[in-house]
Amino acid sequence: MKKKFNSIEEVRIQIDKIDEDILNLIFKRQDLVIEAVKHKTKEQIIDEVRIEYIINKLRKKSELKAISPELIEKIWRLMISNFIEFEKENFDKIHKQLD
Q: Is the dihedral of CA 64, 66, 68, 71 positive or negative?
């Protein structure tokens, strides 16, 4: 295996850059979640069919990329769970802005 980095600091710099990219993507995802909430009722916040579709799709894609499907599932279930809480906490506020 070819050595790509000369120190742990070099690796951490790259990890920090990726973390920034992930943060920006989560910000974009949050904006889309807000848009989705505008089209939902409170009863539609949790969509088990959609959640399982997302998880299954990402598990398959992770296998193709040689990423642990179990790891990906845990990460996405945690993220989805937290976005569901975000939707519940902000539902009324988002819908009031539509009036």
A: negative
Contacts 24+ apart (CB under 8 A), 35-43: 36/87, 37/87, 37/90, 37/91, 37/94, 37/95, 38/94, 38/95, 38/98, 40/87, 40/91, 42/88, 42/91
* C-alpha–C-alpha distance, residues 50 and 45, integer Å: 11
Q: Which amino acid is at 82?
A: N
Answer positive or negative: Cα dihedral of 97, 35, 79, 44.
positive
Give residue-wise pLDDT tens across range 3-44.
Answer: 789 999 999 999 999 999 999 999 999 999 999 999 999 999
Q: What is the DSSP letter of 53?
A: H
What pTM, to 2 d.p., does this model score?
Answer: 0.89
Task: Record the tokens describing residue 67, joined without a space.
Answer: 């990423």
Give CA–CA dist 99/96, Å, rounded: 5
